[in-house]
User: Fold these one by one.
Assistant:
Number 1:
Amino acid sequence: MEAVALRNLSKVYGKEATRAVNDVSFTVNKGELFGLIGPDGAGKTSIFRMLTTVLLPDGGSATVDGLDIVKDYKQIRSRVGYMPGKFSLYPDLTIEENLNFFATVFNTTVEENYALIKDIYVQIEPFKTRRAGKLSGGMKQKLALCCALIHKPSVLFLDEPTTGVDPVSRKEFWDMLKRLKEQAITIVVSTPYMDEATLCDRIALIQNGNILSIDTPANVVASYPEKLFALKAGNMYALLQAMEHYEHTLNSYAFGEYMHASFRTDVSEVDVKNYLQQQGLQGVEMKTTVPTIEDCFIKLLKD
Ligand SMILES: Nc1ncnc2c1ncn2[C@@H]1O[C@H](COP(=O)(O)OP(=O)(O)OP(=O)(O)O)[C@@H](O)[C@H]1O
């Protein structure tokens, strides 16, 4: 049985009838680490809030652990762990008090499920008498994860857990998720960071409430249809402009210190360099490059 299943799930907000989530369907297998990848406003939080029974859908249906998100909301609440995007702990309670509070609410004790949080908790335990509001971003995130895990959920929903967290803590956090996965907990995680997408078993790319693609990160990348090039020149702005106006260009955009470009036809590097020289560009570097998830996302958006 799937751990999570969405069937044409929709959410519409306000008078303007914004379709924040538009007929979204996908399933998450038991024990999978599944990523919802998309920019701000894509609809990730709305999906999480519906799946954790905090928000009612306006269309379609969904199940978590085989339970209906509308009819069986009470049972779902006792089975899922939810770490919302915004810091949701009690800032005036200490680390220890927050954890005990969440354990009590779920009718359990910290001792009962300590094995599950131990790896994470030992890192913040030295500060256990510190108030949650006074913790660093990375520590707050670890405490929030402990609180979401303390009742041993079967499905864990993590909404942008690494947003605003430093790169070292981000890496540590993903290492923790891998260890949790080994404990057979299904994890659904959202992120706007494309590099984190590659760490998931499968991903759904989402934009404006619509799913653009669902597959393993490797398959998403492998399905990139064109040859992709990385280009660089002394004057990057002029390079971007010139490539945008090149008759063979299909897609072109800035990408870190390079720009990426793909072509409608099978043009050679010599053709492109000749064209750029005619446009007055000097010191042009051009090489083929392997598409990343971000390139795939950009391609899907432009198509
Ligand atoms: N309560 C609300 N009332 C009106 N519009 C809303 C409400 N909540 C979300 N929206 C709109 O719905 C769309 C999807 O928002 P949602 O928060 O689900 O996206 P997201 O991918 O989680 O992005 P973010 O990271 O910014 O939260 C956005 O256009 C947002 O402005």
Number 2:
Amino acid sequence: ESFVSPDARISKSTTLSMAGGEGGESEWVKALLENTPEAPGAFENEMKMKGLLGNKDGGNNKLSANAALIQWLEEEGDVYLAEVSSWGEAPHPMAISTDTRDEITNESSGRGLLARRDINDGDNLFKIPLKLCMTKRSARKALGKDIFSADVNEYLVLACHLIHEKFVMGDESYWKPYMDVLPEVGEVNPTFSWNDEDLSFLDGSPVIAATRSLQMKLQREYDALLGGEDGLCTKYPDRFPKDKYTYENWLWAFTMLFSRAIRLRSLKEGEALALVPYADLINHSPFSQAYIDAREGGDWLFTSGEEEVILYADRGYRRMEQIYISYGPKSNAELLLLYGFAVERNPFNSVDVTVAIAPRTESFVKELKDESIPIDPLAEEKIEFLDSVGRKSMVDFPCYADRYPVELLEFLRLMQMTPEDTRGRPLSEFDYSRTISAANEASVLRSVIEAVTRQLGNYPNTEEDDAALIKDKGMFRLLSYNQRMAIRHRRNEKRLLKRTIAALENQIRKQGLEDEDLARAEGSTLGKLLPGDERKYGMKQKTALEDRLEKMGLPVDLR
Ligand SMILES: C[S@@+](CC[C@H](N)C(=O)[O-])C[C@H]1O[C@@H](n2cnc3c(N)ncnc32)[C@H](O)[C@@H]1O
């Protein structure tokens, strides 16, 4: 009885733990390994060897800022971030790298979080209590509820909160260790912070218009809230000192908000925009399934009732691998505008294409003074119909690499309707999500090609030119970060547009539409795109990009 081989004993206990649902032998070995303490600093040394802790100048400051942040999180928030394992507990799964790099372009992506050890799918990566986060609530408390009412815009009040903590409170700020890890504008480089020369590298790209409107908007918001005659700096000079609430600092605050504030959706009180220390050190991958949200903290035994922000691993990670989350299905234009980077292989990438079709009313055709352009008998009805569905005759549509925007096709099918298509029926009776007629479809596809071709013509140089610039690595490196980003971006836009044209031409051939009603497609078409329509029709509808900005909850109209 007493002579039991050690092996038998192990297998018995393994069976027992399996019965408890804890997994098999490999789990057990893994748990043992995880509890075998790594020498303190071993992981950090390895990161250093791999260049993940930055260079000497500035690198050391960044390291002490990281250490101070971790200490603050542990002390103020009881956040578990132990670097080495203690009895019964594995080390914290992540470590801060000060200098991560993009694998394809080798551009710096700033700080990021790495797996300190192997991580399993579904593992809890961190819990940050909400009380450490900066939200509208903490902003109003810090700045005065008499000044900011409960319904103040979150972006505006959080921008002031950031300026207050970093520039007014400074060393006295509760959030100082967090402020000290926040980057400078020049480390993030969203396009709205670029100078005109760098921006000119994006000539022809729709990013320029979006950038300009955002710049104007930020200036207007600053003047209205702080800098102007009735601004807070004049009304409350003690609380809002002019030399701290500068426009430069305002741009820094918005750079932080756009690139790292998170919308927490499942809070007890609904949703809120928040700056979440530590969580905002995670970089973006469009392929990550992980995202951040909040829930009520505490486990079933000790419910604290306190809310916290949590993150679970979306997949397994190997030691030293960088952990990513998804900032959402964002196009490169949006990423450049708000986050200062673009992703070379981005499945959510799209380019906004402007499609302008002038309904040829009698008066409009008269103005054109061109005998060959006929009046469209359906023009007035088309305008009415567009009005009724809230569209203008000039619209922006996102163009993707792998699919057509359905809305664009619907819009064009309507605009290309002729009396042969309607046979006297009202325009509102048709289903534009389907092909109307072969002739109609042919002119729809041709007008997309025309619009995309025209847009390609807006760029001062070709995709091949850009490719050559990028290929000459020595010269390319001499350009600034912004200029390199701009060239890569405009090249990717052109590539996507060219692919769209090729796909459409293919479709025209496949559907046997090459010969379809050429008269309608060539010159005499009623819904032909017109150069110069932009001027004629004045302001166009919001761009797709602006539309998304507005959905973010930014305060006023962009224009
Ligand atoms: C939420 S922060 C992530 C942490 C940031 N790297 C830092 O140093 O604080 C977002 C910023 O990180 C950088 N970033 C995130 N994902 C990136 C990526 N895939 N490629 C390049 N830069 C990235 C951009 O500067 C972006 O504005």
